């Protein structure tokens, strides 16, 4: 019976993810997908933050405004690319039964966000009136 | 996440409601994308409706629609079966590329 269920599940698996290993429990795949979506939301929030800095801080000096906006946009790009990459790596690791990949990206991203936040504080304190 | 935990006897319904949670995650992500697109359109049309501004606006709308398409297809798949198939890598790449393109659009608008 379990073998049958596994076969039925295989029918629904696209050929691309059938490269190696065997299909993990679909709930693990869905959890992986939700993690991917959470990272994508983080990326979208960073990009939205970039737009917001550009739009809602018009009194800032041009260099500060564009620099902060570009930093946030670049962080968003990195975050979304990394989201796909990590999703694929996790998917393959699950199919092969290996440990999930570790990553130093969350630490790097939090450092970048902290630096941007400190920059905002400095800007608000000293650089407001260009 | 090592070996699959106790496999359920009836595959009809997952008590953890994983497909539903994944569907709602897609909804949340679509909402985030919408907020982002609205901010992008505001930036594009900031200094009046110029030709590059309108072009950027159309591009952002197209990207938003592309993302919405991916999300809609996935949500339908999730709703259709009790044990949905894994997410296709090309769709994941499409969703992320829409996000990246929106950021590139934003960089062009900001500069």
At a glance:
Chain A: Its main location: membrane. Chain A: Residues 27-93 form the DUF202 domain. The complex is a heterodimer of chains A (130) and B (111). Chain A has 130 residues and is mainly α.
Overview of the structural elements:
The complex is a heterodimer of chains A (130) and B (111). Chain A is mostly helical. Chain A has a domain at 31-116. Chain A has 4 helices and no strands. Chain A is elongated and about 55 Å long. The termini of chain A are far apart. The model of chain A is unreliable at 1-14 (pLDDT under 50). With 111 residues, chain B is mainly α. Chain B has one domain (18-110). Chain B has helices at residues 18-44, 51-80, 89-110. In chain B, helix 1 packs antiparallel against helix 2 (51-80) and helix 2 packs antiparallel against helix 3 (89-110). At the A-B interface, helix 1, helix 2 and helix 3 of A face helix 1 and helix 3 of B. Chain B: It is found in: Endomembrane system. Chain B: Residues 7-22 have a biased composition (Basic and acidic residues). Chain B: This is DUF202 domain-containing protein. Chain B: It holds the Pfam family DUF202.
The multimeric state of the shown protein is heterodimer
Distance between the termini of chain A: 72 Å
Strand content of chain B: under 5%
Inertia-based shape of chain B: elongated
What gross morphology of chain A would you assign? elongated
Q: What is the element string of chain B, with H for helices and E for strands?
A: HHH
* Protein chains sharing the most extensive interface: A-B, 51 and 49 residues
Strand content of chain A: under 5%
Give me the number of helical elements of chain B.
3
Class derived from helix and strand content of chain B:
mainly alpha
Work out the radius of gyration of chain A.
Answer: 21 Å
Count the E strands of chain A.
Answer: 0
Give the helix proportion of chain B (percent range).
over 70%
Reported for the largest beta sheet of chain A, the result is:
none
| Mean pLDDT across residues of chain A | 80
Low-confidence stretches of chain B: none
Structural class of chain A: mainly alpha
Q: H/E order of the elements of chain A?
A: HHHH
The count of β-strands of chain B is 0
Distance from N terminus to C terminus of chain B (CA atoms, Å) equals 45 Å
